[in-house]
Design goal:
With 578 residues, the protein is α+β, with helices and mostly antiparallel strands. It is built from twelve helices and 26 strands. α10 packs antiparallel against α11 and α11 runs antiparallel to α12. The longest helix is centred in the middle third of the chain and has 30 residues.
Length: 578
């Protein structure tokens, strides 16, 4: 589906050399820019290595067989193709105005072959995701270095009222000088001087790295660095633990292990920054990148770069689970996600199948000559061979199929049975191997199970069993990844968080408002204090009485002296007597 090596673009201004990356939305080529450099001796023709990103929405597009033009399959495909082409062009325009040592430079954007192209500087290196896969978790000092550099790039774009909105390890390249370079501004948003959104293209979500407000289009209508701060914290979490964090919308009902639980070598200071950056409520996070970088430990200087990677990969990597929003709360999975999972399961299945055949073959060798009994203990457990999934083969490859052959006394019909079988031991002098069919669920059965899980989840959500509802909706999504199931999962997580807060507030008797807090009396102790809207105590409930002290409040202690707090919940005087 890619253009051939040696292909020219823009009247031979550019030449393509090789493909360096493919993703769901584009193909990235290494290429050459033919240009002239003017000097004292006149203009000298030169060749500059570059990267060229071609917009190619692979699940809806194809290359015309008689040429190089990109064609679209359907009306729906044409709509999506057009919207995401706008996204690519917007990325180029934003990047063309953003020049920073830790951001990839865009050289040109143009349309040709019925699609769009971005010409960028060529960066020899690998993404942090590639490095994480090749080397494992990063040393803390190295991870902090890359995070500081990426943070400075983000601080720069935030000052221009731009949010990146897709910070993750695969969008941070490490160049030949071992420095981080931020890429892929395709889902970024620009805001005007009043912090209002001025771009409305589709919003892509990288699961595990996206903040909870990104799951709702209205959550990013006003400019705030908080979504990028959450993603930057999640990126550091991933680099130091090797694990993609629990999705923000699921953390109300699913465990979120602290970084030090997964990697005891993480220092306390770094962990504190990660956890604050990844708070669910945006107001509980750092409010600026500068504030986050100030709190983050500064890595020691390195003697020399340790990055030995050579090749560049500026593609939209497809290994991560990604969603895109086409409207308010309209979640869809990128079309290639299911295919990746099928290929992955196929590989695991083939390995498992080979092991099973080896085990069954060993049993066959022990079959007796007279009655086919096995000279092994009758306690040998049955071996189950699961049915092979429907899979797709790569272009040009032949699909490798296998079948289970009968052991003894099987008819020709049995020998042609598909491999959806199980090995069953029978009692006797030894053990006889028989083949029994294993049924697969039909489409109707899958539909019925999905419907039952959705209904059960709704009932549990209405009854306040949010953990049970989360399990049902998650199972339903594994059967059918519908928008309905995803929306219910999000709604359930939101209700669970509301219930958690309501339960905390119910522990108190509310008395009166005090600034942004409420003065309360804790029911279990009868003591007074003040809580915020989430039920968190900001003035501890340890006082026996509350009085007015001008604009402040006087909280009486057990020893009959008072502590004076202002409306911000700050203790301003202590040991006051009246």
């Amino acid at each position: 589906m890619n253009l051939p090596a040696g292909h020219h673009l823009q009247n031979k201004k550019y030449q393509l050399l090789q493909v360096v990356g493919r993703g769901g939305f584009g193909i990235t080529y290494k290429g050459i820019l033919f240009t002239e450099v003017k000097g004292p001796l006149g203009a000298i023709k030169t060749e500059v290595p570059i990267s060229i990103k071609e917009y190619f929405f692979k699940d809806y597009c194809y290359r015309a067989p008689d040429g190089f033009n990109v064609q679209v399959h359907s009306e729906t495909g044409r709509f999506l193709f057009r919207k995401f082409k706008e996204k690519l062009i917007k990325e180029a325009r934003i990047l063309s105005e953003v020049h920073h040592p830790h951001i990839v430079n865009v050289l040109d954007v143009f349309e040709e072959n019925n699609t769009a192209y971005i010409a960028m500087e060529y960066i020899a290196g690998y993404s942090l995701k590639n490095i994480l896969e090749k080397e494992g978790v990063l040393p803390e000092a190295k991870a902090l270095k890359y995070l500081h550099q990426t943070g400075k790039a983000l601080q720069f774009v935030h000052e221009k009222n731009i949010l990146h909105l897709d910070i993750k390890p695969s969008n941070i390249l490490i160049d030949k000088n071992d420095n981080a370079r931020l890429i892929d501004f395709g889902v970024s948003k620009r805001y005007d001087t009043e912090d209002r959104e001025t771009s409305t293209t589709m919003l892509t979500l990288s699961k595990g790295f996206a903040s909870i407000e990104q799951y709702d289009n209205e959550g990013t209508q006003l400019f705030s660095p908080c979504p990028d701060i959450y993603s930057l914290g999640a990126t550091l979490y991933n680099l130091l633990t090797g694990r993609i964090p629990t999705e923000s919308i699921l953390r109300a009902t699913r465990p979120f292990p602290a970084p030090s639980v997964l990697n005891p070598d993480i220092t306390a200071g770094t962990e504190t920054v990660i956890l604050k950056a990844m708070q669910i409520n945006p107001t509980d996070r750092f409010q600026t990148i500068k504030e986050m970088l100030t709190a983050l430990p500064i890595p020691p200087p390195e003697d020399k770069p340790e990055n030995n990677f050579q090749e560049s990969d500026l593609s939209e990597e497809t290994e991560e689970d990604t969603l895109f929003l086409t409207g308010k709360n309209n979640l869809q999975k990128t079309p290639d996600t299911a295919n990746r999972k099928k290929k992955s399961r196929k590989g695991v299945f083939l390995i498992f199948l080979i092991c099973i055949f080896a085990a069954v073959g060993a049993v066959i060798l022990l079959v007796g000559e007279n009655n086919g009994s096995v000279a092994a203990s009758p306690e040998v457990p049955p071996v189950v061979i699961p049915p092979e999934e429907e899979t797709t083969t790569k272009e040009g490859e032949e699909e490798n199929t296998r079948s289970v052959q009968p052991m003894t006394n099987q008819t020709e019909t049995n020998r042609q049975e598909p491999q959806q079988t199980a090995v069953k031991p029978t009692a006797g002098e030894g053990m006889r191997i028989e083949l029994m069919p294993v049924s697969q669920p039909t489409i109707e059965e899958i539909e019925a199970e999905y419907t039952a899980l959705i209904a059960s989840g709704k009932e549990k959500m209405e009854a306040g069993d949010y953990t049970g509802a989360d399990e049902d909706f998650s199972k339903a999504i594994t059967l059918k990844a519908t928008n309905e199931a995803k929306q219910l999962l999000i709604s359930n997580a939101s209700k669970a968080e509301e219930k958690r807060i309501a339960d905390k507030i119910a522990l108190y008797e509310e008395k009166t408002n005090f600034g942004k807090y409420k003065i309360v009396r804790r029911k279990s102790t009868g003591k007074y204090g003040a809580i915020d809207s989430k039920g968190e105590e900001h003035i501890p409930c340890k006082y026996v009485y509350v009085g007015i002290a001008g604009e402040n409040r006087a909280f009486q202690r057990e020893d009959n002296v008072f502590d004076i707090y202002n409306a911000n919940g700050i203790l301003i005087r202590s040991d006051v007597t009246y």
